[in-house]
Write a structure and sequence with these properties.
The protein is α/β, with parallel strands linked by helices and 353 residues long. It has helices at residues 22-29, 44-49, 51-60, 74-86, 98-111, 156-159, 164-191, 197-211, 221-241, 250-261, 268-282, 288-296, 303-306, 310-318, 320-323, 338-351, and strands at 11-15, 38-42, 64-68, 91-96, 114-119, 131-135, 141-145, 151-155. It contains 16 helices and eight strands.
Length: 353
Amino acid sequence: MNIQPFILPLFLTIEENSTADLISKLDKEFNNIESKKIMLFTSKSIYNIFKYKIDSLLNIYKKISTFFVYDSTYDIAVDIAKKISIEDYDIVIGFGGGKVLDTAKYASYVSKKQYVAIPTTLSNDGIASPIAVLKTYEGKSKSFGCKSPDGIIIDTNVIKYTPNILLMAGIGDTVSNYTALFDWKLESKHKGIHTNDFAYLLSDTAFNILLFSREGDIRNNNFIRQLSQSLVLSGLAMNIAGNSRPCSGSEHLFSHSLDEHYNINVPHGLKVALGSIVSCIFQKRSSEPIINFLKRYDVDITPEKLGISKKVFINAWLRAQDTRPDRFSVLNTIKLSENYLEKIYNEITEELK
């Protein structure tokens, strides 16, 4: 995966109504905004929710064109990148969820234009990461290296429209840092590969921001701000490392296996959170801190709730390492069997109730 050398975003805003008077804000960050052509990526569903906000922006600033993302595929991202380049657009804005943001991110990378991310959900750490997840052949997803956004604007009032399950997914994706960092250190020990200390610190801090949060309501402004900070720090950790290692280990291999072999239609963050509980067992560490943390926010990741049967659970773990043969993790140090995995399935099903 080819990731651009680490460059910090030019700006980050996390506050209420931060999308109000957007053009004035962009004018402070980019020189002479009135002369620049802007391509706004969004989706029909997001437009229907925030119609007043988007229409107001289009009425105020006449040099904005809107592109509605109906699917996040590699071909779509590259095709719209051609249009951006040929028609001399200057700035790309992504306003939406993961599909919109990843399409906009990759299109801006291919066209070499500045990119501003305005998420409407906080479901994963892709907001600030230098990675875009896009569909390729037969609808299969692939992670493409690119670059982090030049600017990130998180409006906590916009995020409040997010369904609870997506906020819970964001919590789950942050939990995965706990086991991913262990696997990264394990790779260093076994293969002599250096772990970047600053990337490690950011990923660990991202996890601890939430683990030790005193906020009890996921829709509280302070919690939304903390979750935003956590996901952004995780993205920057990957940027510094030049890969996804600070936030992706054996728990993500389990999620990739589910994605490649089964149709488990639940948010990514919930699948990796379940993976982290199991990875803790493989790593011979207590999963109690993260189980208690998830229960505090009513994040239900029991296999039954996620639609993962015992058979699927076992087979997904048995095939997990094959999804990324080059990704060293605790899976390289143990031998899995159907009986062992069945025992784990039964144990965690009880623990997570």
